């Protein structure tokens, strides 16, 4: 494996006195899709947020592209090649689709045109709805917008927090296909958090299992899918 | 048949609701109206009870609430598109003309025959509130930061000018930018401690901030004159030409060969506040189309999403506070030069409340709405002057009615700041439906 694009070393994160992450170590190589699966409250979102420095890791290191970003302010981290589509999508409801997309690029100070083009090729639905208020989009469209907005900053690493949350199977399949396409065509590195372990593990090159703040298993997607513990806990058992 | 089935619960619900409202009214009015202390013939206080008045008030509340609820339910039942929705199209189309017409009216007002000193003074007052409304709109309407102490910046601006003129003899034109800068500085000072606060908590801290500024002005007698205020604040000049009553060499009237008249200064002040207000509007409209303004609005919508996009929340908040405060400071300096006398009494909480009411009634974030609300509210205050203490009651009622009729404010729609060929308006009706 080449040198990782993202490396998390022994990271612990606290909410007050509660330790949400207890010495988590993971690594993501350039061009990889890595998924993180785990039950509700395992700390998946916390891990993604810790990478962004909000909340900050109390101990351990976050290394991105060979640089230690653990102590960097969030807005610097998000301008330096990492983007996140947060849990629950969080589009700006009263603003138009177009404005939402522009906001994705603006802190970068880059020309939004190529980003818009990429977004519309990936999700043609968004182009039709450019002038529509984001709050009136369907759940699936909002998810597309959240991903497209994150991509507007032209990141090298995309953090996705439960993109299939609350979506019909067909729509979530579309979203997963878009992620695969992005990864295959542009070499975008993706760290994907999912409840939908089956789909996520099929899509990802590798995966980690997080249980109450600790990594308990890791391996290729296929390996994890075959593990009886994973099948019992996250695939509803068979 | 379907009527009989649906009308029942409507009636029942309305009755229950009205009953509750009457109970609340009883709780309020029993001590406030029911009990009254009067001075007896011997000078001693005695307690008078007015239960019939209380009953009457309760009956009015009951009937009012019942009719309102009944009307609402009945309207909803008929499924027909609400008046609001039917009006949304024509209204937003006519909205395009309202702003230019209002602007033209404002520009020509002093030239309209029959407009005298009184009307101009009223115009100046309305425009001051338009400007304050637009200034606060940056903070509350665009950035979504609920500020209940906006009057503090108005006070800082007014006192900045008054004190700089008094102690250093500086002219209005030098002090105007200084007053804005000082107010902006205080805006940032307020911004820092409240960076992490939102909603109710932010409102409470800003409320306290407003009171602190007022109390400092009131108690720092050696500097501010305390409750006596500062008088003899110099009037502004027109590029160095003074507005002296008797004319004389170097005066405005003398230079232009006019008959000396006190109206000149009033007209000048009118155009001055109009220019300041338009400057506020222009800056706001410009910024809304730029990354900073877009970041303000995005922050109002979702702060966490903003962070995830690399937007610096600290600078975004502080610039909103600073800019809003700066325009408040300009307005304050204008107020001081117009009145020639200021005291802490002009900067009480009620001022903040009125300005906030203008912003909310106008429709958070809407420039035109704020202007109309200022005109209606401040103009209305004057029109109903004869009602004396009933004025507040009329105003409370008017505000409640507007909020029932248009819950998102008079102009509750928002235009996207980037046009895509044809401009589309996100109507209030759609806004109301969404989860925004
Ligand atoms: N802001 C917060 N303050 C305090 N505790 C928090 C906060 N956010 C998360 N937690 C706690 O941290 C733990 C991990 O939460 P996290 O949101 O990371 O879980 P998750 O794996 O993303 O779960 P889900 O699949 O339900 O989204 C939980 O016990 C949660 O209660
Ligand atoms: Mg989560």
TrEMBL record, chain A:
Listed GO MF terms: ATP binding; ATP hydrolysis activity; branched-chain amino acid transmembrane transporter activity
Pfam families recorded: ABC_tran
Signal peptide: none
ABC transporter domain: residues covered: 6-237
GO process annotations (BP): L-amino acid transport
Listed CDD domains: ABC_TM1139_LivF_branched
UniProt keyword list: Amino-acid transport, ATP-binding, Nucleotide-binding, Transport
Family: Belongs to the ABC transporter superfamily.
Name of the molecule in the record: ABC transporter ATP-binding protein
Species for this entry: Teichococcus oryzae
Automatic annotation (TrEMBL), chain B:
One GO molecular-function entry: branched-chain amino acid transmembrane transporter activity
GO CC annotations on file: plasma membrane
Family matches, as Pfam families: BPD_transp_2, DUF3382
InterPro entries: ABC_transp_permease (IPR001851), LivHM_N (IPR021807), LivM-like (IPR043428)
Topology of this chain in the membrane: Multi-pass membrane protein
Residues spanning the membrane: 12-34, 54-71, 97-116, 145-164, 170-189, 201-221, 268-285, 318-341, 353-378, 390-407
Chief location: membrane
Keywords: Cell membrane, Membrane, Transmembrane, Transmembrane helix
Residue span, High-affinity branched-chain amino acid transport system permease LivHM N-terminal domain: 14-108
Location of this chain's protein in the cell: Cell membrane
Protein name according to UniProt: High-affinity branched-chain amino acid ABC transporter permease LivM
Lineage: Bacteria, Pseudomonadati, Pseudomonadota, Alphaproteobacteria, Acetobacterales
GN (gene name): livM
